[in-house]
Design brief:
InterPro entries: Aldose_1/G6P_1-epimerase, G6P_1-epimerase, Gal_mutarotase_sf_dom, GH-type_carb-bd. It holds the Pfam family Aldose_epim. By secondary structure, the protein is mainly beta. It has one helix at residues 7-15, and strands at residues 20-26, 29-36, 39-44, 49-55, 81-82, 106-114, 117-124, 132-141, 144-153, 159-160, 163-165, 168-170, 177-180, 186-189, 195-198, 202-204, 209-214, 222-226, 231-238, 242-247, 266-273, 281-282, 287-297. The chain is built from one helix and 23 strands. The strands form four sheets. It has a nine-stranded antiparallel sheet with strand order 6-7-8-9-23-19-18-13-16, with no helix packed on it. Strands 5, 11, 12, 14, 15, 17, 20 and 21 form an eight-stranded antiparallel sheet that branches. It has a four-stranded antiparallel sheet with strand order 1-2-3-4, with no helix packed on it.
Length: 300
């Protein structure tokens, strides 16, 4: 398969578009592109996934692979929806990692867009789990992007659910970034076999990093500082007690749609509900929402 540069070409294609809403086919993926005074937003109907968000006058906030696997495979980058399980299935490891939502076809149920921002409601075209309703709300308010994933159990049985909004944030160089806001939180280090630890006041990316952090719901925002691009991203979450921080470092050599040529260009900070720090049970009649937002702060 031809792996032509994906994000750069996508950005170039979008730059030539007029203001408004456009449909776009790319590597087999059906995309919807919005251009407005507030900036640019690209949605994929495969996975209900935000692929690109660029506020007016800014670099993109989200990273997207230049080597997509092509439809119907999941897309690496943007904000994948990991649901109804996060990472490996706890009982059936042969099932797809990160669940089925990110490779399902979604639809846009409603949208409202104006010069100040927009709001989009998306849902899977078909049921992903019997009796379970899933909806994604995407909101742009000026230079801020927010997502809220809502699960409602309309079945007659409780259901075990873990999930994440797996945000890939674009950076100049991961080695020139640091993360603040997780100091003294308990964490599990997946690289070290889930070894428990405590988060430092400033996290730097000097090797493979894969941390599940216990961060209380509605706690202070995480700040991603990019010293190369001289910008700060403010990242918030609600509805989950876990934050996942990931960059594969040298392990990217074995990840086909990342590779060593791209690994330094993103850092993942993910709002999550995990089996380690969250209640997995969604009771009959219960509704649960996991949400995250990102906005640009002045530097330093």
């Amino acid at each position: 398969m031809d792996h032509a540069p994906f994000q750069d070409s996508l950005e170039i294609t979008i730059s030539g578009m007029a203001m408004g809403c456009h449909s776009l086919q790319w590597s087999g993926y059906e995309l919807v592109v919005y251009k407005a005074l507030w900036g640019e937003l690209v949605l994929s109907l495969l996975g209900g996934q935000v692929l690109l968000f660029r506020p007016a006058g800014e670099k993109p906030l989200l990273w997207l692979t230049e080597k997509p696997a092509g439809a119907p495979a999941a897309i690496r980058g943007g904000i994948p929806v990991c649901w109804p399980w996060f990472a490996e299935h706890p009982e059936k490891p042969e099932l797809p990692k990160h669940g089925v939502a990110r490779t399902a076809r979604w639809q846009i149920d409603d949208r409202t867009v104006d010069d100040a921002g927009g709001r989009w409601l998306m849902s899977p075209e078909g049921s992903l789990c019997d009796g379970i309703q899933l909806q994604l709300e995407i909101t742009v308010t000026g230079a801020e992007l927010s997502l809220a994933l809502t699960t409602t159990n309309e079945s007659d049985q409780p259901m075990a659910v873990t999930q994440a909004l797996h945000s890939y944030f674009a950076v100049s160089d991961s080695r020139e970034t640091e993360i603040l806001g997780l100091a003294d939180c308990r964490c599990l280090d997946k690289v070290q076999g889930m070894q428990p630890g405590v988060m430092p006041s400033s996290l730097r990316f000097t090797a493979e990093t894969d941390l599940v952090v216990e961060q209380a719901d509605n706690s202070e925002a995480v700040v991603l500082i990019d010293h190369g691009w001289k910008r700060r991203l403010r990242i918030t979450k609600r509805g989950g007690g876990s934050t996942v921080v990931w960059n594969p470092g040298p392990a990217a050599a074995n990840i086909g749609d990342v590779g060593m040529d791209q690994v330094a260009r993103f850092v993942c900070v993910e709002a999550a509900r995990t089996r380690f720090f969250d209640d997995q049970t969604l009771a009959v009649g219960e509704t649960q929402t996991l949400a995250t937002s990102v906005s640009v702060l002045p530097y330093p």
